[in-house]
Structures are given as C-alpha cells and as structure tokens.
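anyone seen this seq b4? input:
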Amino acid sequence: MMLQLIGINHKTAPVEVRERLAIPESRLPEAHQLLAQHPGIQEGLIISTCNRVELLTSAPGEAVDLRGFLHEYFRVNPQDFEPHLYEFREREAIRHLFRVASSLDSMVVGEPQILGQVKEAYTIARGVGSVQSNLDPLISRAFAVAKKVRTETAVGSSSVSIASVAVELAKKIFGSLQGKSVYLIGAGKMIELAARHLVSQGASSILVSNRTYDRAVEIAHKFHGTAIRFDDLYANVDRADIVISSTGAPHAIFRREHGEKFLARRKNKPMFFIDIAVPRDVDPELNDLEGIFVYDIDDLQQAVSAHLADRGKEAERAERIVDFEVEAYLQRQRTRDVVPMIVSLQDQFETIRQAETDRFRGRLGELSPEQEQVLDALTQGIVKKILHMPISTLKTAARDPQSTTVSDLVRRMFKLDDTNGKPPGSGSGSGSGDAS
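predicted toks r here
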C-alpha cells in the first residue's frame, strides 16, 4: 500500500491562495467520494480548515497523481499552486498526519480545535466509504497519538486558539474591551469561542448574526447578547466597534461599498474587522478606507509568535513522542505484513505433514489410538522444529526497515504466492493483504 499526502497550509500559502482550495463542510461528503473514485486511489481523507487543505490517500500500487485531482475538482491549474504545495509519502506522510492531529503543525501550537476538525473529516469519510481498512488504523492511531501528546506534555495546557488570538488582537488595538460593542458574524465553534473570550475581557455589548437564526439566538443567549437576523446584517453592523466574522460563505460578504456606508453612519468613527474565515468574509479593499482596519487570519500570526516561544520546550517533547509513535506504527505494520506469510507457511507444512502421514499409514498396519497420537505428535514436532528458525527470522526481520529482503527470500524459498502468502494452487483472494 502506498501512502501519500499532498496539501497547502498557513506556512506554505497565504490566505488568498488557501481560500481558493477551501472546501466547505457541506461539500466534504461529495469531495471524499470523488477522491476515492480518482484513478489509482483506493481510500482517501480530506482535511479542510481555515489553515490547511490536505489530501491523504492510500493506493495499492505506485504513487498517484494527486495534483490531477486538485486540477479536476477545483478547476485550477496545478502550476499556479505548485510553489505552495507539499507532498509526503509513506513514513513522512504518517509523521505529518500525527503532527497535524497533535496540533504541532497548527498556527497556534497546542490549540485543541484541529483534532476535532480531523475527527469530523474522518467521520464524513467513514460515512461515505472513502476511509476503510487501509487508512482506518492509521487515522485511529493519529487520534491516540494526539491524546498522548496532550496528556504527557503541557503543549496544550493553556486555552489558546485562533479565536482567542483574535480577541487578544482586538484587546491590543483598543487597549481594553470594556464598553466596546462587538458583532459576531457566524455561529460556529470558532465564533462561540470568540464570544467566550470577549465576555471574559469585558465586552459590554455582543451582537450575533447567522444564516440560521435559531443558532444565532442560542449563541446570543449564552453570552447575554442580541441575535440579529441575517437579512438585517448590514443594517446593524455600524453599531459595532469590532466585527469578528467566520462564515462559510464562498465569497466576501463585506465589500468596499458596505464599508463606506458603515463609516457614514458612524460619522467616521473607526471600525475594526477581524476576519477568521477561509474563504475570507471581508474584501481586503476595505483596508483602503480611512477609518476601517481589516485583519485576516494570516495577520494573527504575529500575535501567535509569543505563544510559540512559550511552548517551545513542550513542543520539542511532543515532537519526540510523535517520532517514537511513527516508528512504533511502522513496526506494527511490518509485523502485521508477515503474519499472513507465517500462517501460510504453517498451513503449507501442515498439508505436507498430513499427506505424508496418510501415505505411509498403510505400511504401518493398524494403529491403536495411542499410537495414532504418538505419530501425530511426532510429525507435528518435526514440522515445528523445521519452521522455528524461518518463523523466528521473519518475526525479527519485521522489526527491521529492511525486512522486505528476508520476506522476499522466504517467499521464494517456499514458493509462497506474492500477493497473499498462500502457496500456489491454494487459491487467492482479491485485493492486497493490507486491505484485509
């Protein structure tokens, strides 16, 4: 099985590039199905967040053209994104997945949201059948590694997230949030987190608007704010000093003409937009208006740098855990790969033992039950002793990255089938051994 991972993230691509490849949650089921149907791909997982879009795939043979999928699905020229793409295979793909799930590759190292986002992607992929027996053990192990990192290190000890950093930025802009009015656009987890931090920092008025009004009411009620119907969005934005927006809209919902109207109503009193959506909710042209200041998710990286310094030593410990877990996973996989061969070897010798015993039984005359037991024990003992060394060698070799050399030698010596370890003539199942 060939493991591949291709993607872009906040380290390799600016938000204006990432937003072109972002997949809204509503389209993830269809995207997973199309990925699994792409030529050469057996299974696939798509992780799409504000900071990354990644495809993890397994294939029965050689590497697959994942750039071709990007071209077909997003209708983009891969050359436009080539400078921003990264691709990992096998060991490095496993390591990258473990690091992502453990929040070591996040903009805010240790933030807890990414693990939930990976789990949501996994649930969708399982639901449509794009993740099955090949990727399932790997992804499940990634969750276990993430839990181990969070349990054994302090990398996630303080509650830091994109939402909390956004609120921290707002606080730096105003000096204090006491008496400030804040408008929250959207009602997802990120917005709810932002609301929690805003209240703790003393924001006096919170307005919440969402396409699903009941959800806006729910969030507003939690934080003693006011829900605004989405149809009335533009009529109320000028009431806010700070606008934090995180919707799933495919295009900007705030454009230059909106900003001009807001400033006129506010008599040019400054407004600050913090856009944590990908694709972006706020057109960058609003920054050209005197009195409006726009910060997108990439601008938050300056606020993040302080957190990275604080968590450096814990992140190093977490990286060591990930490296250990990658090797442990690969070793388990190698051991798993030789098990069918060992079973087949035992079956082959047991077939020979029984055939030879039956062939010579006639020469021995009638045997008593006790003699039959002795004969059976004798021949079984001989077979076990003959197989002891090759089986032990296979098990030892499975812990070595070069184990394929030994496995291939044993396969050829005993004429075992190349695909599933069964001897010639014993029948063969469909698919690869890794898929069983």
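Residues 99 and 229 are 40 Å apart (CA to CA). The longest strand covers residues 2-9. kinda curious what u guys think
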